Amino acid sequence: MGTPKPPPPHVRAAFGARDAEPELIDAGPMWRCGDGAFKPASSPAEAAWVAKALGELHVPGLRIGRPLRSTDGRWVVGGWAAYRFIEGHAEPRHDEVISVSLTLHEALKSLPRPRFIDARQDVFAVADRVSSGELEMPLKPDRGGELFAELNAKQKPPKLTKQVVHGDLFGNVLFVGDADPGLIDFRPYWRPPEWAAAVVVVDALAWGGADDGIIGRWSHLAEWPQTMLQALLFRLAVHALHPRSTAESLKGLARVAEQVDQLL
After folding, report:
1. Topology (CATH level 3) of domain 90-263
2. Confidence at residue 2, expressed as pLDDT on a 0 to 100 scale
3. Nearest Cα residue to 205 out of 103, 92, 90
4. pLDDT tens digits for 18-55?
5. Which pLDDT score, from 0 to 100, does residue 26 have?
6. Mean pLDDT for the stretch of residues 192-212
7. How far is CA 171 from CA 91, 116, 209, 232, in A?
8. pLDDT of residue 99
């Protein structure tokens, strides 16, 4: 894949960071430039929606990396969006991330369904449609498709209320000392908030070193067994479709599948 490329000088200048030296944040693709954090933005419509949603959002106990406008008022310049840099790093504080998820989504529940969601064609959007039954697509058996088919036969879609959710909170909630958690890289989906929490659990178990008890600690959430199954099917579909998936990462999902199967 190679090293991510930093935002070019004209992009940095447009957001008031002309003289800032780009610094790759963790493994990327975000770059710190002074007080801003820059990331590639392929969809101006989505970036503008996120900017409006986060710019007006206030969640008690949560620091938010708010979007920045360019000097001429744009949210996206040259394929880049910028956000206020917030301190912190992702840590294996998985239950705290789930708590953040529930608090965040309570604050987001009144937002209407974004129109751009139907137009997205990236791996994650396609996997979301496949796992929810909106789209049929063959998945490579050795990349997670076989396990997906086996578990999909046990799916009984939960009757939960859909809303705007952040669908990728694992790794995007930052911690530093005793400060409030920080939120970055909002990726909107139209799913129940319980699903977003379950995705965190799946990720934490598959790749984050979470203890097996995390499933039980959140089993009070509505229709939890089927919600966990849907979250797992989503991650399996992503794995089967993503070009950088590995056999090792599939092992993590297979371990989660054993635990989810016991719930059904």
Report:
1. Aminoglycoside 3'-phosphotransferase; Chain: A, domain 2 (3.90.1200)
2. 62
3. 92
4. 999 999 998 778 999 999 999 999 888 999 999 999 88
5. 83
6. 97
7. 8, 24, 13, 17
8. 98
pLDDT in tens, 158-190: 899 999 999 999 999 999 999 999 999 899 999
93-106 pLDDT, tens digit each? 999 999 999 999 99
Domain range 9-86, CATH class: alpha beta
Token pair recorded at residue 178: 């005793």
Q: Alpha-carbon distance 158 to 58, whole Å?
A: 29
3-state secondary structure the chain: CCCCCCCCHHHHHHCCCCCCCCEECCCCCCEEECCEEEEECCCHHHHHHHHHHHHCCCCCCCEECCEECCCCCCCEECCEEEEECCCCECCCCHHHHHHHHHHHHHHHCCCCCCHHHHHCCCHHHHHHHHHCCCCCCCCCHHHCHHHHHHHHCCCCCCCCCCEEEECCCCCCEEECCCCCCEECCCCEEEECHHHHHHHHHHHHHHHCCCCCCHHHHCCCCCCHHHHHHHHHHHHHHHHHHCCCCCHHHHHHHHHHHHHHHHHC
Cα dihedral 241, 248, 199, 93 sign: negative
Q: What's the CA gap between 232 and 71, in Å, rounded?
A: 42
Structure tokens, 104: 């965040």
Average pLDDT of the residues of the chain:
95
Which pLDDT score is estimated for 3? 75
Please tell me the distance from the alpha carbon of residue 160 to that of residue 190, in angstroms, as a whole number: 12
Domain boundaries, the chain: 9-86, 90-263
